[in-house]
Design goal:
The chain is mainly alpha-helical. It has one domain. Helices cover 40% and strands 9% of the residues. The protein contains 6 helices and 3 strands. It has a 3-stranded antiparallel beta sheet with strand order 2-1-3. It starts with a strand and ends in a 28-residue tail after the last strand.
Length: 136
């Protein structure tokens, strides 16, 4: 899934999976406020699941404004935008990254068999490479 902000498209799953500990800490601190503990990776995962669950089951398009009625979901969307921009190398604060009109923010689905949760760690890579066992 791609996150569209203005005229740029960001790979959402890669940005969330590639979030550094420094970025996650900065995100938590920059989104912390009175009565709000700040957003973390679990909050992002839960918001993403709520977004998927809010889609109508009859195939009609979901109204994204329904999802954004909840303050936690709105904060999660801001976090997604910021993480995508940071992953792309942009040095912005959460506030600066989200200084866009809502009409310029959206999602683009990639054709896949099943929806992927961007907060799940990838398990399809082998950091050791292809190592063959010696023949006995």
């Amino acid at each position: 899934m791609k996150l569209i902000v203005g005229d740029k498209k960001y790979p959402l799953q890669e940005a969330i999976q590639g979030a550094t500990l420094n970025n996650l800490y900065a995100l938590k601190m920059q989104t912390k406020g009175p009565g709000t503990p700040g957003i973390g990776i679990k909050s992002l995962r839960d918001a993403f699941q709520r977004m998927q669950d809010s889609a109508p089951k009859d195939g009609t398009p979901a109204d994204p404004l329904d999802f954004l009625e909840d303050a936690e979901n709105l904060l999660a969307l801001q976090a997604m935008v910021w993480l995508c921009k940071r992953h792309a190398g942009e040095a912005v604060t959460v506030a600066d990254a989200n200084d866009f009109p809502l009409s310029k923010i959206g999602f683009e689905s990639e054709e896949t068999d099943e929806a992927e949760d961007p907060t799940q760690a990838r398990t399809d890579t082998d950091p050791g490479g292809d190592v063959e066992a010696p023949a006995s």
